[in-house]
Amino acid sequence: MGVTVVDHPLVQHKLTIMRSKETSTASFRRLLREISLLLCYEVTRDLELTTKTIDTPMQEMEAPTLEGKKLVFASVLRAGNGLLDGMLDLVPAARVAHVGLYRDHETLEAVEYFFKAPSDLENRLVIVVDPMLATANSAVAAIDKLKERGATNLRFVCLLAAPEGVERFTKAHPDVPVFTAAIDEKLNEKGYIVPGLGDAGDRLYGTK
Ligand code: PRP
Ligand code: URA
After folding, report:
1. One of 4, 44, 149, 202 is an active-site residue; which one?
2. Of 1.20.1180.10, 3.40.50.720, 3.90.1720.10, 3.40.50.2020, which CATH number belongs to 3-205?
3. Which keywords does this chain's UniProt record carry (predicted)?
């Protein structure tokens, strides 16, 4: 399935501003939303189309339209919501799942505190969004849970990934393609991505 690095110049430029520690919460939030539009474009690039008959003001035509059931965006709370907002701008009819997970700062294990998803996940494409793929403990736990609830067709979108996280994720869920704006150098001893951008949730919501 593999990993796609979205190297579009606008994505890379905006990501650089987000990484800077001088960037304000307001700018960070706006930039994440903007980048999410571009990541959404990429992750939905091969969605299947069918046609339907419509009347333009000029004549009848067979026009392309998305095939199948509405897709689901699954946001890994909290920081996933920063990507979710932009994705919903592009696909406003999408359904939304929320997966509440936080990283235990000592063990780096993902701890679940909330889960709510549409009941018919098996019939839908589920696009999981979370800006950071560090150890991948959170992403793997989120996908485990969604699969347990019936999802079979999944994709994972993040902003930044660590090589260690990519390796663990693709081993745990080889059937789930990953889309990211960058793969950084490594994880530090506290499990943070370096050079990275710090704590995505804190920067997004100003909770440091
Ligand atoms: C961050 C991030 C991911 C997770 C990535 O969330 O949004 O969910 O860490 O790290 P991992 O790959 O090592 O699991 P965090 O736990 O800080 O929660 P928050 O979004 O509520 O701030
Ligand atoms: N979570 C974050 O928000 N940032 C990191 O660098 C790693 C995990």
Report:
1. 202
2. 3.40.50.2020
3. Allosteric enzyme, Glycosyltransferase, GTP-binding, Magnesium, Nucleotide-binding, Transferase
